[in-house]
Please model this.
Amino acid sequence: MLHIASIEKSFGAVQVLKKIDLEARQGEFLVLLGPSGCGKSTLLGIISGLESASSGDIIIDRQVVTDLEPKDRDIAMVFQSYALYPSMTVAENLRFGMKVRGVPREKQATAVAEVSRILHLEDLLDRKPAQLSGGQRQRVAMGRALVRHPKIFLFDEPLSNLDAQLRVEMRTELKKLHQRLNATIVYVTHDQVEAMTLATKVAVMNGGVLQQVGLPQEIYDRPSNTFVARFIGSPPMNLLPGVITDVSGMSGVRLGEADEATTLVTARSSAAAGVAAGTSVLLGVRPEAIQHEQDLAATRTNVIEVAIDIIEPTGSDQLAFFRIGGQEALARLKPQSCSPSDRLALRFPPEKLLLFDASSGALLV
Amino acid sequence: MTIAQSDASRPQRAARLRRVALRPDILTVLPSGLVLIVFVYGFILWSFVLSLTSSRIAPVYDFVGLQQYALLWANDRWIQSLLNLATFGIVFVTMATLVGLVQAVFIDQKIRAEGVIRTIYLYPMAISFIVTGTAWKWMLNPSLGLERLVRSWGWESFRFDWIVNPDMAIYTLAIAAIWQSSGFSMAIFLAALRGIDGEIIKAARIDGATTWQTFRSIILPLLRPAFFTAIIVQVALALRCFDLMVAMTGGGPGFASDLPTNFFYQFAFGRSRLGFAAASGIMIFVMVLAVMLPFIIWELRHERRRER
Amino acid sequence: MSVAVSADIPKLKSATAARRSKLVGRILTYGVLGFFILFYLLPLVVMILTSFKTMHDIETGTVLSLPNPPTIEPWTTAWSKACIGVECVGLHSFYRNTVIMAVPAVGISTLIGALNGYALTQLQFPYPRAVFGTILLGAFTPYQAVLIPLAKTLGHIGLAGSLAGLALVHSIYGIPFTTAFARSFFLSVPPELTKAAKVDGAGFFRIFVSIMLPISTPILVVSVIYQFTNIWNDFLFGAALTYGSQAPVMVALNNIVNTSTGERPYNVHMAAAILAALPTLVLYVFAGKYFIRGLTMGSVKG
Model:
């Protein structure tokens, strides 16, 4: 449905988007995820036609739309600040686009009725935006998009202005809407939780470059570089600098020096292409992957006794800061697993350990 | 499905350029821009050209170099008008700024009926200079005005015939101008005072500073931009002063309260010496430019910095 | 600011001393403010009193004495019989002149200014600040530098000495101000509003009329009030570019006051002055806050 073909964008001397190639099939929920300034909103602007690309093309439903105005691209957009027309009622807001396009009045009324039903806007139709709450305004903004029956919905950080509770509610609403309409959606956000919960495909961006594109679970399990590894997942993945050693034919990583040194074995064979013993790497392990080893009798691999520095109880978990190989790391444990200054046995399952190149940050497969 | 050629080819670029030129927003601003280019910059240029000619009743485009300017600067009346302008300007700007500052400081003291007071302080700005001049001319009438009033209160020897006194007439203009326009600097200072973070004052109080010390060392420096704005705008007002002078003194007695703007007007529309008058007009323009241009550049650059 | 050393901390005043100094402060504050109230109201009071007096009363009384007996004859004279040069027709026809001239001038300059302000801020105009600066400089030009060419041009296009010519002049020279007002307002309108409308398919003028104008009422009011006040109170353009019966009200007022021969009817002068000042004064009283916003915005942007 949507093809982003080698899109590049520069503002003067600054290149904001560097050769972006991306696709979204019909019914796909594509999330553009990245920190502020990564170019995701610019890319959305180019898809919508509100901004022009320096080079490259946008193809929607097999039609090249690169030189078309937004109104001719059959898209609809929901903005972060909702951008509802302040002097018009909700109903007039919904009808405006249709009025501009010369849709007959009866069809306007039907469309408005249908959309108000889906989004529960019936009671709000005569109110002005200033009289609505944040969540209501958000729904009207979505209604305005829905009423166009576009080929693609574009969302620009629509939930960022809502408070935490409302955000969770609206996220679910969005997911339901997506399933119900089988709509093709491109969604921009910096919130990786939103990305993980909503997306059928995630495109992680940084500095105008696509870092990784894939299913949410793929990106979580096998991030293609340290940026993605740390951007997805909260609290972020531990990245511990170390050196490759050989441990009985498997790649191991020695963390730290001298008497602080600890070696962890990975599930990667020494013979696998790429990394010789002695190479500097970053060992990646997610806090939630680290286990509290209760059964000290069973000698499993990668069980290390560590000293706990600080604990942060979150209610559902206990975040434990500890030192390993002379560096600080974080584990997510069950509540009340330990107290500060305890010594605890932690297991680092080899299959959950990832290796990244120390200089480029790329994942070593 | 083929993916189209990604590089912007020449015909594409030409089409885009054409689209820029015909954009409705550019087409909308264009007429205003063009009209102003003609009516402001074009006319100033035209006036300048005229000032290089010997035109009298009608424009004659014979270039005589800077002759008119030489005549201008040798003209006693012109010099007198400039001296008057300096006196008027200095007195007016200084006093109006001070009055505005004092008013703003006291209004900011959490007083009652602030709205009413502000309304009263500012209403003179809604009045024409002609009306102001007429009112003050009457009030300063030597035999029937304030002089007689104060005498009737018992002060028999009070004299207030400044308006017919060649040495003092210019000051009457300043008084009327202050009455009319000091509200402006009050508004500027009040807005600036209200923009000062109250916590700074509280911190000073904890540090033990007296009211006067706080005012002098903390508040006054923070008011620098307000001073700047108020002074610049008032200087521009003084340079433009014409209506007030016409209504109040007519430039008199003699040329004691004459101003460059009146000089221009009389020679342009009364004495029909177009080239000569144009020269004086350009001189007035240069004076205003010397004051306003740095101000505008500073303001716009400030805005860009604020946006960042 | 350095932290005060303990020896510098002023002695703790007793409660009554503190209260007394606060009282002194209050007296000083209200005293100064009261003085200025008298200062600003004095001329107005004098004008009103004088306008209701007979000439005999004026010559025997003082400017603050009450009219004895009060008369409205100066007012009727000012309105319909006062002499302007050789014609004695009073102020009323010049009043009408000015209204006829001011209304279109205010409307045109406000509308054009609003369009300019919108175009310069909402649509990625190329070099918006430079263009705006060029327009803005027009607000600061002393009219003496353009008056002679202006008069000549009006003559060439057949509008010399006419109200239409004056209206055109005021419209043109008002554009920098109205553009500045509108621009500062539209700068604060989120650009996403325009984007949403574009996605909805609205073009430049549709967005302006259906979306921007309805929300810009406050700034339109400021613009109208500022422009009307400036145009109504103008003297220079009126005196230079019109004559005789086509003059605006301030030119007429000045003529009444300054070209009387023989005994000057001060009471008529004052009545005429008040009449001339009335529209802008009334506008100020009812819409003062917009007026003030226009003042401070005209020079302190943002």
